[in-house]
Amino acid sequence: MSTSEPLSGFTVAIVADRCRDELAGMLERRGARVVLAPTLRVVPLAEDPDLRAVTGALVDNPPDIVVAGTGVGLRGWLQAARQWGLGDGLRTAIDSAYLLATGPTGGLCGGSGGTATDGLATDGLATGHAASGGGSGGAASDSATGPGDVLERLLRHGVAGARVAVQVHGEPQPELCAALVGAGAEVIEVAVHRWVPPADPTPLRRLVDLAVSRLVDAIAFTSAPAVGALLRLAGPDIDSLLAALRADVAAACLGAVSATPLVHRGVPVVAPARPRLAGLVAALVEELPERAPTILVAGREVVLRGHAALVDGKLRPLAPAPMAVLRALAATPGRVLSRAALLTSLPRGADEHAVEMAVARLRAALGGSAFVQTVVKRGYRLRVD
To answer: Known NCBIfam families for this protein (predicted)?
Structure first.
């Protein structure tokens, strides 16, 4: 099988909902096998009655300050408002406010000859600057890099007696909102991304098992709520899942915001310099081949990938059971592992006969019995001498 693509043999799980097809296509074109397991699904904004009610209230009584968390969310909000007949009113309300951009907003700022909302880009970190007037009809705008920076800038700007609309991306921001209220502001939370659990949680439970068994090489996260949902669903397996993410399974995050819940739990993350899907894929293309274990077995170079092994550069696809056995044996090259020890690496419910079958299939896939030796009455070992 060809190894011309850099991610051939690697398995990457995607827990995103909104951009999963685009991300999956990019990974597959580079040779990866993709596992789709969305942790959450986004409620269509135009169908969200709470957002419609908040929008109407802001049109009737415009805010003094708008904290825009994501460019995608703000554009979606404006599009939904147009469907409700509130688009012009909402745009006017935002453009008359002091606009503070934070997170992947793509440069939310007023420019010469335009308004604050004219500057929306598809994604990326905010690159706005303080602008007095922001162009014809526009208000001042600014950019920040996180909740702490947002609060510092707002307090410096002054919020006492001000109406502050805070765009919430998926999950509430109680600390920011409480601090603003404590400083004398009236805070209106605007949930432009409301998440609900997937209709079928089975793929997620399967993903937890795959990650714990080291049968995926990476999990791609595009939002902090998706990270939190996966950790909650892991339940009693959360410690095992975190152990896998800290060692053998790469946690690939779109940016600093999505990485935060993992970083707080001591999980190292792979992330692009700028929050773009293409950058996320490029980071995986660089990271995964570098961390693939390489051992010399029976005089041949064997490189372990998620669902395959490279034997002297040739890709050898492996089913989950023989792959799990190979990983267990490769963890301590040359050491004999009993059938009982190897059994712990196989999916739940397997028996020692399943170990024998997995070893037989592993030998066949690698190219012969010389790779895995039987040690009578003791078990199996990789031939590394």
So the answer is: PRK07239.1
Q: Is the pLDDT of residue 186 over 60?
A: yes
Q: What is the CATH number of the domain that holds 66?
A: 3.40.50.10090
Tally of domains within the chain: 3
Q: Are residues 210 and 148 in the same domain?
A: no
Q: State which residues form the domain around 53.
A: 45-196
The single residue listed with the structure tokens 């299939």 is: 361
Please give the single-letter amino acid code of residue 381. Answer: R
The mean per-residue pLDDT over the stretch 6-35 comes to 93
The answer to which of 5-9, 88-92, 147-151, 350-354 has the lowest mean pLDDT is 147-151
- Asked, for residue 344, whether it belongs to a domain, the answer is yes
| Domain limit, last residue, from 258, 291, 324 | 291
Q: How far is CA 133 from its chain centroid?
A: 37
pTM of the model: 0.68
Q: Does residue 2 lie within any of the structural domains?
A: no
Cα–Cα distance measured from residue 81 to residue 45, given in angstroms and rounded to the nearest whole number: 9
pLDDT digits (tens, 9 = 90+) for 349-380: 678 889 999 999 999 999 989 999 999 989 99
